Amino acid sequence: MGLVTGACFAEMGVSVVCVDIDTNKIDLLRKGIMPIYEPGIKELVDKNVREGRLTFSESLESVIDGVSIIFSAVGTPPDEDGSADLRYVLNVARTIGRNMNNYVLLVTKSTVPVGTAAKVKAAVSEELRKRGKNIEFDVASNPEFLKEGAAIKDFMSPDRVVVGVENDRASHLMERLYKPFVLNGFPIIFMDISSAEMTKYAANAMLATRISFMNEIARLCEATGANVEMVRKGIGSDKRIGMSFLYAGAGYGGSCFPKDVKALARSGKDYGVEMKIVEAVEEVNNEQKEIVFKKLQHAFAGILKGKVIALWGLSFKPDTDDMREAPSLVVIERLIEAGATVRVFDPVAMEESKRRIGNIVQYCNNIYDSVDGADAIALLTEWKQFRLPSWTKVKGLMKGNIVVDGRNIYDNNELKAEGFRLYSIGKNN
Fold first, then answer.
1. Run means of pLDDT, 10 residues per run, the chain, 429 residues
2. DSSP-based helix, strand, coil % in the chain, nearest 5
3. CB 421 within 8 A of CB 401
4. Are 130 and 122 in contact (CB under 8 A)?
5. Longest dimension (CA), the chain
6. Strands, DSSP E only, in 158-284?
7. 213: how many CB neighbours lie within 10 A of its CB?
8. Residues 320, 316: Cα–Cα separation, whole Å
9. Per CATH, which fold does 289-423 belong to?
10. Known catalytic residues?
11. Any idea of the CA torsion for 202, 331, 244, 416, to the nearest 10 degrees?
12. What's the rounded Cα separation, in Å, for the pair 339 and 391?
């Protein structure tokens, strides 16, 4: 989300240089081509480039003397043991230490475990010692809480801005930077750095917990004859609970929840604290990613060999092309193993799918193309354009009549009237 952060700060009048060592990305940005899919990002970037507040560079070394605040927004992928891999975060710190000549505030935007700021500070200090320099600097933590697909809106209208600092100097700089947002009534919550680092992990783990909890309730609903949608409305109407993140489905994916839940569980092990709930959240989610495949198995009495399955949606959520940890990857793998032919359509994630899994599936031009001759449909991503297809047209093109709704967006009565057999999550249709 570094590009979103940079573009949004530029929109507020800040002079911003976005740096990435990937020269291809920088070349694309200079040409006005976005290397990511995010609604509204191209318009925002183009505007601020045109007005001179936003530029791009492949070299932090070349721009470091002209800045007072550096945001580190590099990736922290999960290591083999589930812990966050900090190599990129520390590489940024070392680069700063090797090249800084004036005071800078180094702000970690990436999601990092508690204690990372101390490692960052040590890395900068070590490089300064090697140079024989005694230059003041500060570190801070400013975790992002942006949702892919709504990142710009979330940045411009945040629920809160969490900032972890060590001293007044860093606090004043961050307060000044975020002043336009304060004027709009959005709170900045200052705290110590360790608490800021923990806040991001705790927030994502809490949201992931709500999802896994509802998916577990959905399984029980199916076993008992209850309807998870009715249960969701019943408990979500309680103000203490609320409706957010209470939707049963095919499991969560993406760049944040899976790795952050793993990393928090790993942190618990490192500090001798057993994270029983967090570990269960991950276990439930891994099982839930199989649910659509299992329902297809059930629909065809365990025999999927030779069946043609139309898969609607590849990204882990709508309005993004991100397929990291997406349930679709699990379903595709299981279907191919079972001998099925998989035909897929996604409005924006097809190229990403080709990059990840190649041509083991058939890529289609639209939903109607995907269902031509299909035995079943499996919905995995609730894109708006999947909500109201012409079921009459779909039925006329299909060979079979099975629909597995992995996001509970379809009405059983409507599909039954069209001659379909609908399988939902947490319902006995």
1. 91 93 92 90 95 94 92 81 82 95 94 91 96 95 88 89 95 92 80 95 96 97 96 96 95 91 92 96 96 97 97 95 95 98 97 96 97 98 96 97 97 96 92
2. 45, 15, 40
3. yes
4. no
5. 78
6. 161-164, 188-191
7. 18
8. 8
9. Rossmann fold (3.40.50)
10. 256
11. -170
12. 27
Separation of alpha carbons 248 and 1, rounded Å:
27
CA distance 265 to 268: 5
Quote the tokens at residue 395.
């039925």
pLDDT at 397: 97
- For the chain, domain boundaries: 2-191, 200-280, 289-423
pLDDT value for 80? 62
- Please indicate, yes or no, whether the overall pTM of this predicted structure exceeds 0.85: yes
Q: Do domains 2-191 and 289-423 have the same CATH topology?
A: yes
Residue 107 CB-half CA count within 13 A? 22
Name 309's bridge partners: 342, 376
| CATH number corresponding to 200-280 | 1.10.1040.10
Helix (H, G, I), strand (E, B) or coil at 248: coil
Q: Distances in Å between the alpha carbon of 172 and those of 69, 158, 179, 217?
A: 12, 20, 10, 47
Extract the tokens encoding 71.
Answer: 């945001």
Tell which residue, 247, 244, 212, 242, has the closest CA to residue 228. 247
Conformational region of residue 142, where left means phi above 0, alpha means psi within -120 to 50, and beta covers everything else: beta
Q: Assess contact for 80 and 39: CB atoms under 8 A.
A: no
Task: Tell me phi and psi for residue 362, to 5 degrees.
Answer: -95, 125
Residues in Cβ contact with 415 at an 8 Å cutoff, skipping those fewer than 6 apart: 391, 403, 422
Q: What fold does the segment set 2-191 form as a domain?
A: Rossmann fold (3.40.50)
Kindly give, in sequence order, each residue whose CB lies less than 8 Å from that of residue 13, ignoring residues fewer than 6 positions away: 53, 180
Q: What is the DSSP string of 156-203?
A: HS-S-EEEE-SSHHHHHHHHHHTHHHHHTTPPEEEE-HHHHHHHHHHH
Question: CA–CA separation, 25 vs 19, rounded Å?
Answer: 10
Q: Which pLDDT score, from 0 to 100, does residue 428 have?
A: 83
Q: How many CB atoms lie within 10 A of CB 312?
A: 28
Give residue 180's pLDDT.
85
Assess contact for 332 and 323: CB atoms under 8 A. Answer: no
SS3 54: strand
